[in-house]
Amino acid sequence: MSTAVEIEVGPQPLTADDVIAVARHGAAVRITDDARKALIDGRARVEELAAGETPAYGVSTGFGALATRHIAPELRERLQSSLIRSHAAGTGPEVEREVVRALMLLRLRTLATGHTGVRPETADALAGLLNAGITPVVHEYGSLGCSGDLAPLAHVALALTGEGEVDTADGERRAAADALRGAGLRPVRLAAKEGLALINGTDGMLGMLLLACRDLRGLLRVADITAAMSVEALLGTDRVFAADLQRLRPHPGQAVAAANMRALLADSAIVASHRGPDCTRVQDAYSLRCAPQVAGAARDTLAHAETVADRELAATIDNPVVLDDGRVESNGNFHGAPVGYVLDFLAIAVADVAAMAERRTDRMLDVARSHGLPAFLADDPGVDSGHMIAQYTQAAIVSELKRLAAPASVDTIPSSAMQEDHVSMGWSAARKLRRALDGLTRVLAIELVTAARALDLRAPLRPAPATAAVVAALRQRVPGPGPDRHLAPEIAAAAELIGDGAVCGAAESVTPLR
User: Fold this and answer.
1) Measuring CA to CA, how many Å separate 78 from each of 123, 142, 485?
2) Which of UniProt's keywords are assigned here (predicted)?
3) Which of 247, 90, 217, 158 is nearest to 498 (CA)?
4) Which one of 57, 286, 341, 392 is the catalytic residue?
5) Is 392 a catalytic residue?
6) Looking at residue 449, which CATH number applies to its domain?
7) Do 246 and 186 belong together in one domain?
8) Domain tally for the chain?
9) What would the DSSP string read from start to end of 382-408?
């Protein structure tokens, strides 16, 4: 765990960078003095309600369809612990550590507003888990994205009480009670409303949205790079990316993508070699010519998603909530529709960017359309198959991405005896988007290794300085053209270079990208 950076958590909104720092890089958290005051004030109002005779949802009543039962004071501590135990009902594969840490941080920030009415020591306990690197085991299935990500957050709350399983900072699986003791932390005994406050939020789907936005922004730069490499490899033109042409359709994302393509292809000897009057080709295929339009639309979709994420970062999600004037009111802010919609929207953009990359790859392998490249870029076509099956792999992934682009948020299954009769499925939208981003990374990796091989085969003509730098970076891990060899490790290496930023870094060593 890295503690070089400390993120302050208080009533003010977090930023996407804050969430990434804690979720991915192990930054520590600190609850601010403003938050402590807000926590004390909010708790005072909840305790006032708990002492009164008027029923208050989640304080002196049951939950969901059981909200009509009044709970006697002597049973209210049991009410909260029972809520957490029963709601920690997830199943299936385990959710990634970065996702769990993101949802923990986002729930802590909501607690720190004081609007949930938890005690300061409960917020401190959640911060303690994050700072100790203790990550509760959370499962894939269990959230309908309405009333919050109930099951995932309940598994976190269960660990706070010393129950369930967790992973320690060094990755060891331990019983929560043992891990807490080893870190010098005490289990929480939940008081009135605290169990509900710990689980009634959209923190899981928001955390995954923030992580996805960060990843997709980088992948779209890579898509510009691989597209530019493919344009060169297929003897395409850069004239269609001219700024004055792009201004005729003033979408901001398109302008960014086209500017990147122009910068990446600047001073390309390959492009210059066929600019003369003897070139008989009038127009490139859509997968080359329209690359900025598709990658640009994906950028604009991403910008909308980031706007929604920023609004959610400023939100307080709980039910009921303690308002500034002391009222405690039920509400529907836990519904995940705003987040679910954009998660699904991003999956559509991811599928389309990948589909276009696969089409460019296929053109480089087809001797009838590759303008002089050997069939499948093979060393000895017929004896060697070259990248034939790498394109099969791309096609399989793209087909899967199209299935993952089917929206989850249009589905709803009533729950809680029809009290919760419309749900968002936002958690499911987030889970499939993570899989889609992994698929896009691998599709771009295959285009990268294919385009690099094609550019090498265009020698002695040289690619642009920026794309040449990318080829050189790839060649540190993946050899150049030659007889057939085991391709899977080369695709994996290219995917790693994309994931760790080396591909973008190589291009930007020559020219800045937007």
Assistant:
1) 20, 23, 63
2) Cytoplasm, Histidine metabolism, Lyase
3) 217
4) 57
5) no
6) 1.20.200.10
7) no
8) 2
9) TTB-TTHHHHHHHHHHHHHHHHHTS-S
